[in-house]
Amino acid sequence: MAVQLVPEVQIVTLKVQPMTVESFAPYGELIDTVGTVNLDFGGGRPSLCPLIAEFRPFRLDFIGRHKRTTQTYIPLGGVQSIIVVAPPGDPKSKAALPDATKIAAFLNDGKSAFNLHRGTWHRTPFPLAKEAKFLVLDRDGTLEDFDLVDLRSKLNMVFEFTL
To answer: How many degrees, rounded to 5, is the angle at CA 9 between CA 7 and CA 12?
Structure first.
């Protein structure tokens, strides 16, 4: 009988940082003051849909990206949430993985919308309450170009975050 050893998964703890225009810039745009936002629907039609993010443990096993569209989250109801992101990767590469050294967690105040750059790796927000409601603006049919990566199997890592 052959025994195959499975490598131990590395658990990386991220400190949640304040979401500011400057700190969030590598991942997207914070919409908290007067100004404009660069929306890119990759030639498709815009879509606006509701999202209810339910409370779950502050643990990141999977992360995904939309290769052909920006994605804007507009919080409703003022519930704070943690947003976990990694910078955009090469949108043409189906084998692209997020840069584990640049995965970051931000605290959204529940009042400020944010727009993710095209290709930014992310997960649905992690609310600090039972649930948080959002309107999401992106390209119609965007799930067809969504890359989802299992961090445990691809990077042998899992991310946890603390306030």
So the answer is: 150
Contact 46, 138 (CB under 8 A): yes
CA dist list (Å): 85 to 42, 46, 104: 21, 22, 6
Task: Give the CATH number of the domain where residue 135 resides.
Answer: 2.60.120.480
pTM for the whole structure: 0.91
Structural contact between residues 23 and 17, judged by C-beta atoms closer than 8 angstroms: yes
Check the CA dihedral 85-89-91-95 and report its sign: negative
What are the tens digits of pLDDT across the range 53-68? 999 999 999 999 998 8
The verdict on residue 54 lying in a domain is yes
Domain count of the chain? 1
- In three-state secondary structure terms, 42 is coil
